[in-house]
Design a protein that fits this description.
The chain is α/β, with parallel strands linked by helices. The protein is built from ten helices and nine strands.
Length: 256
C-alpha cells in the first residue's frame, strides 16, 4: 500500500488514456481508433497475455497515430503504470477486480478518473447477484464519472433497480476495426468461421441470477446441420473456454 501511494505522489503523466480489460482484442482495436485521433494511448494487459500481442501490428496513418502495449505482473506494477494516464478506460469490471484490496486508492485526489465500458452478463446478470464482488462493482460504478453501457434490456433494468449513476448508452467501441489491420487470407472454396465467444449453455453456471446464455449449443447444432444438408460449405474454429466447453465437445461428437 505504501509503495502504491508513493507511485501516486510521484506520478508522471505519460498517456492521455490507458485501456485495461481485454474482450477478444477489443482493447487493441479501441486503442487504434483513439490513436488515429491523435491521442496518446496505452493498452495495459496482464503479463501472461504477452505472447498474444507481441506481433500485433500498430499500423498508423501518420507518425502520431500509434499506441503502446505494456504489461503488469502484479498489483504493484499495475498501479504504478495506470497512474501515468490522464484517464483510465476499463472494460467489463477489470479495474475494481484487479485493484482488489487496493480499490480505495481510486479516491485519492491524484488518481486518474475511470470510465467503465461494461456489457453483457457483467451488467445484465452479475450485477444482480448477492455477492461481495457484485457489491464492489456496483460501488465502483456509482463512484465513477462515466459508465459507458450498451442497451441490453436486463442491463437497463439493473441500472434502474440499482440506481447506477452517470450511465450513458452508446454503441460498443472498437467494433469498426481498420481493414488494414488484417492480413489478406488465401482464397478458399469454403467459408471459415471464428467462434471466439465464451461457451455457455447455462448448464454448469445456471444460478437464479442468469437470464440468458450465449446460445453456443444452438449455433453448433445449426452449423453442423447446415453443413450436413449441403446448405453451406463452411468450417468453424471454436475457442475452448467457458463453463460448458466440455458439453460443447460432446455436442459436436454426438451431432457428427
Amino acid at each position: 500500500l505504501l509503495s502504491a501511494t508513493k507511485s501516486l505522489l510521484h506520478q508522471e503523466i505519460k498517456h492521455d488514456i490507458i485501456i485495461i480489460g481485454d474482450i477478444v482484442g477489443v482493447d487493441l482495436t479501441f486503442a487504434q481508433k483513439l490513436s488515429e485521433n491523435h491521442l496518446n494511448v496505452m493498452v495495459l494487459r496482464p503479463y501472461k497475455t504477452k505472447s498474444e500481442t507481441d506481433n500485433y501490428d500498430t499500423r498508423k496513418t501518420s507518425e502520431n497515430d500509434k499506441f503502446d502495449v505494456d504489461y503488469y505482473s502484479d498489483i504493484s506494477s499495475f498501479i504504478s503504470k495506470i497512474v501515468k494516464g490522464r484517464l483510465i478506460c476499463s472494460f467489463t469490471a477489470t479495474f475494481p477486480f484487479t485493484m482488489g484490496y487496493f480499490y480505495p486508492l481510486k479516491f485519492l485526489p491524484r488518481f486518474p478518473p475511470v470510465v467503465n465500458i461494461s456489457t453483457g452478463s457483467i451488467t445484465g446478470e452479475f450485477l444482480s447477484t448477492n455477492s461481495k464482488a457484485a457489491w464492489l462493482f456496483e460501488h465502483h460504478l456509482n463512484t465513477s464519472p462515466l459508465n459507458w453501457m450498451v442497451e441490453y434490456p436486463h442491463s437497463l433494468k439493473n441500472f434502474i433497480r440499482k440506481k447506477i449513476k452517470n450511465v450513458h448508452i452508446w454503441p460498443f467501441p472498437g467494433m469498426h476495426t481498420c481493414q488494414d489491420q488484417f492480413e489478406d487470407q488465401p482464397d478458399r472454396d469454403y467459408i471459415l468461421f471464428a467462434h471466439t465467444a465464451r461457451i455457455d449453455f447455462k448448464i454448469n453456471d445456471a444460478g437464479s441470477h442468469r437470464n440468458s446464455s450465449k446460445g453456443n449449443d444452438r449455433f453448433i447444432k445449426a452449423f453442423i446441420r447446415a453443413n450436413k444438408e449441403n446448405k453451406i460449405n463452411a468450417k468453424c474454429v471454436i475457442t475452448n473456454h467457458g463453463p460448458d466447453a466440455k458439453e460443447a465437445l460432446r455436442t459436436i461428437e454426438n451431432e457428427h
